[in-house]
Design brief:
175 residues, mainly alpha
């Protein structure tokens, strides 16, 4: 039995519909992948900013240590000057104890600054690693969503071929 124009159009529309669904799914998959990459790039920008923050903190530490050293030297000079002005021998036990106590306090303050800096740097490094992992996860999520959409499009295309073949069989094309 020959096919009429309606049957031919119906078969063609069914195939075209499946192809269009596959194209739409492929476009959606590309978009999902692009969104994952875009989000990852934004997250990775945070890594760079954290690196700059780390550099600034290190520069601040160096300046604070230098200021502390200058203040320490000024205090030690003041102790020496006051001792000499008072006519006390510089090698006296009291003078030496004052100078040594000031030196211990200076060293302690320097160690506290180094310790606090180390903790801050560890926190920054942890935040950078967290951002790296978030960026990787964003790309993986985009890829997974893209794969799912492509599989869905392929399934729709296969279904449209099957439906078309079934319709053609029912129309007696394969008889």
């Amino acid at each position: 039995m020959p096919l009429g124009p309606f049957e031919i159009i119906s078969l063609g529309m069914n195939l075209i519909g499946g192809l269009q669904e596959k194209k739409a799914a492929d476009r959606a998959a590309r978009t999902a992948r692009d969104v994952g990459d875009f989000n990852a790039e934004i997250i990775e920008r945070n890594i760079e900013l954290l690196g700059k923050q780390s550099d600034l903190i290190n520069q601040n530490l160096a300046m604070e240590k230098q200021r502390g050293k200058s203040a320490f030297e000024a205090i030690q000079g003041e102790v020496r000057a006051n001792t000499a002005y008072a006519g006390i021998d510089m090698s006296s036990a009291t003078t030496q104890m004052n100078l040594e106590q000031n030196a211990r306090e200076f060293e302690y303050e320097q160690k506290v600054m180094d310790y606090n800096n180390a903790i801050t740097q560890m926190q920054i490094a942890d935040a950078q690693e967290d951002s790296r992992l978030q960026a990787e996860l964003s790309r993986m999520e985009g890829g997974a969503q893209a794969a799912s959409l492509q599989a869905q499009g392929t399934a729709n295309l296969i279904k449209s071929f099957g439906d078309t073949a079934k319709m053609a069989d029912q129309m007696g094309i394969f008889a």
